[in-house]
Each structure stands twice: as structure tokens, then as C-alpha cells.
Amino acid sequence: MITVIQSPTDSDFVQNPYPFYTSARTSSPLQFWTEYDMPAAFSYEAVQALLKDRRFGREIPAEMATSGPAHLAPFLMTEAHSLLDAEPPRHTRLRRLVLRAFTSRAITALSDDIEALCHQLIDTFPDTPFDLLDTYCTQLPVIIICRLLGVPEDMASQLLKWSHDIVAMYQASRTLETEHRAAAASAEFIDFLRGYIDQRRNDPREDLITRLITAEEEGESLSTDELIATCILLLNAGHEATVHSIGNGVKCLLEHGLNPEWLKPEGIDRTVEEILRYDPPLHMFTRYAYEEIEVFGHTFQRGDQVALLLGAANRDPQGFAGAETFNPTREIKTNTAFGGGLHFCVGAPLARLEMKFALPILFERCPNLALAEPPRYSNTYHFHGLTRLMVTT
């Protein structure tokens, strides 16, 4: 197997990982990435195949599982009960119960709230250059998640802090300090949710936490720990991905010269999918092999990991004609921005819905929106999002 060397924290890579993806992909669809000490899939074909191959999965094989370091106990508790890291039959039960509460009807019902909130946030924009990431891209999804869960909106800033501290565990720049912050944030979030879930059991409302509790009490149950882990996952995954998707989308549209047709009702779906394809918010996800298996010329042993490079797959010319060109008029074709197969992101419909409102309303209300300085990406790989997005209106 060909070996590739590329630090995921190197400044040039962080700002533009796509040349590395292109170089690696032209050599072989599967290569050994030294810094991650595992094979990595770079091509659209390989990533799509591995996402759907049930001989690979997210959950570590039982005989390889460890209790982990004591200082990470609160963080590891949420991981242990997370839908994201479960496989059937546990995954089947968790996902079914979550989808029973997190329905398409519940998501669609948020449309009016999302539209109104976009306008409210824009009403607060200053006349001087400002960071659109903080004032708009971040605020919209976290407030919507608060409303969806039924958590008080005045907790949005606290939820953001917990979320940022926890998801930093998945970044290549992770340190011991990162681990301690993540453990502390997990412990605080768990304590809050445990008390809040108890409140909702005694005082049910029309919110997601109540629906999850109802699902728990209708036969096949969600334990309290599973409820807590699900709420944390919905905040972390639903918020982080949407912030980056909206921010990266605004950047793409401004840098490529916005065509108003792209944001009209008949064009917005294609525009959203093209943004997600061209510059997705998440660039890598890993899987474990569950048996000895040969794929794309490499033999995996049980327990071996493979990195699926979602960002590389989305720029593969074998998957998308003119893949390096940002083209919001292209026909919609399945991309890998939200994963695929059994673990396709449950929050993808909400993220798409928020983008479908956030982008057209922003550019309609701010027709002279322009970059005030060149945007830069944050050193948070395997996430791919901006540090800030300074604009003028």
C-alpha cells in the first residue's frame, strides 16, 4: 500500500486540504496515512463502498474495548451510550427510538421559527465590519436546537461552550488540556440534562426531550444515560455541522460571485447540495473492520481502522464531473457530506432546512454583503470550518 505523509495540523493543509486529496487519490483509492496510522479512502467509489459495507462499523470490537483513562470518564460515558458509536442491534434500537421523536414533521414544523429567527438576527447586524460566524451562522443553529430540545434559549451560550469543549476531542490538535476541558464539559452537561429530564418527566411539553422520554416509556426504552447521550449528540453534531455548512456556504457564494438564481426557490436545493459537496463541514470519519476482509487491494484484520475522507470523495472527478468547480446548477447527486449507510446523519434534514432559509434570507436582506477580510479555516481537522467570517453589509 502506498504511504502518504501529511500533518493534519499543518497550516497550508488546514487552509486547503484539497490538493493533498487530489494528489493521493490519483495514485490509489486507498493509501496508508502515516499521521493517523491507518489506511485512508480518498476516492468517491471507495468512501461510498466502505460507508455501506456492513463488515465495517463504528463500534470498537468488544475484545479491543478498554475502560479508558479515569480523567475522561464523563466524556467516555456519553460516548458509550451514543448512537454515533453503536452498531446493530443496539444501533437499530437507538436510531428507531430517536427517529420516532426526531420526525420529519417535527423538523418541518420549525420552518417558521427558522425564517423568523434569520430576520431577527439580521436586524441586529452592525453598520461596521462584523463577524458573521458569531452573529448569524452560529446563533441560528444553536437557538433552533434549544427550541427543538426544549432547553431555555438563555442557555445557548453555555450549550455552545459545552459543545465546543466536547467536540474538540475529535480534532487533530487535541491535547491533554483538551481532554480535561472535554471531561469537565461532559460532566456539567450530564448533570444539567439529568435534572432537566427529571423535570420533563413530571412536566411534559411539546419538545424533543419529552418525545424521547415518551418513546422511552412506550415499551422498548431509552435509558436515562441514552437520553442524555442522544441530547448531547444532537447538540454537538447538529450545531457544529450546521455552523460550518452555513459559514462555508457564505464564503463560497461570495468568493465565486453570487448568481441570484442560485438562491431562488427553484435553485436553492441544488445550491445547498453543491455547498455541502464542494466544502463540507466534516472531512473524515473512521470505521473498524469486523472480520478479515480484502477491499481495494488491502487486507484488513478484525479491529483495523480505516479513515473515510468525505471531503476527498466529494471532489473526486470520477464521482462528480468538474469536481473542482463550484457549480450550484449541477444536478443533485448523493455526496458524502453527512456520511452514508447505516450511520447517515439523523440531523441532515434539519441542517439542510436551516441552510435553505439562512442563505436566501441573508442575501436578500443584505444584497451588498461582502468579505471584509480573507476568511481563514480553523485548525480543527477533521472538522472544516472558519475561525471567523468578517463581512460588511
UniProtKB/TrEMBL annotation:
Recorded superkingdom: Bacteria
Pfam families, per the entry: p450 (PF00067)
Keyword Protein transport tagged: no
Gene3D superfamilies listed in its UniProt record: Cytochrome P450
Keyword field: Heme, Iron, Metal-binding, Monooxygenase, Oxidoreductase
Record-stated family: Belongs to the cytochrome P450 family.
PANTHER family, per the entry: BIOTIN BIOSYNTHESIS CYTOCHROME P450, P450, PUTATIVE (EUROFUNG)-RELATED
Protein name as annotated: Cytochrome P450
Organism encoding this protein: Parasedimentitalea maritima
